[in-house]
Fold this protein.
Amino acid sequence: MLWLILCILAALTWSFSAFIDNYQTDVIFKGKTPQAMKVVNGPVYIVISIIVAIILKIQFPDITQIGLLMLSGALSSIGALVYYQALENEEATDAAIFYQLQPVLLLIIDFFIFHENITFQQVLGFIIILLAPIIVILSRKRLKSRHIAMRAGALLVVYVLFATISAEISTRSSVGVDYKAIFVFYLFGRGLTDCLLGLIPKYRKRHKYIIKRQPKAYVGTVIINQYLCAFADFTYRYGLILGLTAVASAITNAAELVITFTLGIILSLIWPNFGREKLQKRLIIAHVIAVILCVVGIFIIQ
């Protein structure tokens, strides 16, 4: 049962991290160029990857596999640019619902590029999951709010597409590679790309401004969040090895949705500045329905 504990622990960590992302975007950066966090993200990811490589004494795969794993990390880094932009108008719970489009996109990619078959059961799962973000968008009363939600949703779909391609490259290029090495080179590629993106003048300028205004809150939350994300990713990969991959993946995704939704309500009640969820009855009901649909769809597809 260790795999189950690890997968749920990863889901809990990712859920909490989502609220830190939202807090950083809305409160620290006030919705203005939160991508500047990459100036700090990059070095932190690189340091984590080096520490893990030294402590765990990883075995190096061949140069092609290393390059592809680093490319996987680079795509995640680039996709995060869109993710931060989407968070300017979306809550953590909404974002978590859109993340569940990843298995849908993954199966579409496998069908068109690798010519793998799609079953009727998987198509049914597609439809059920696709209903979830539609319900979230329609739950907004005002037409303007719906347009804002649709724009943020479109950005999140782009982000999920980057994440899906990243996961596909990592999975297909790491056959026979130890999961610790996969984690290290993926993280190193992400950190290196973050460092390069952090050189963009617009991001560096915003970084300098925030570091002068809120140095402790900014650097502290960024470092804590990156260590949390790295811990969750490492824990999840280990959980996949110990358990049945499809079941472990489904349970992690479903648990992350439920935990994010629950945390959103609890944090918004006791710490509104951090939870930042709209606790209107109409929106809560819509989120409950969307979460249920996603959970059902996830298990049907897997």
In short: Residues 179 and 238 are 7 Å apart (CA to CA). The chain has one domain: 2-301. The chain is about 85% helix and 0% strand.
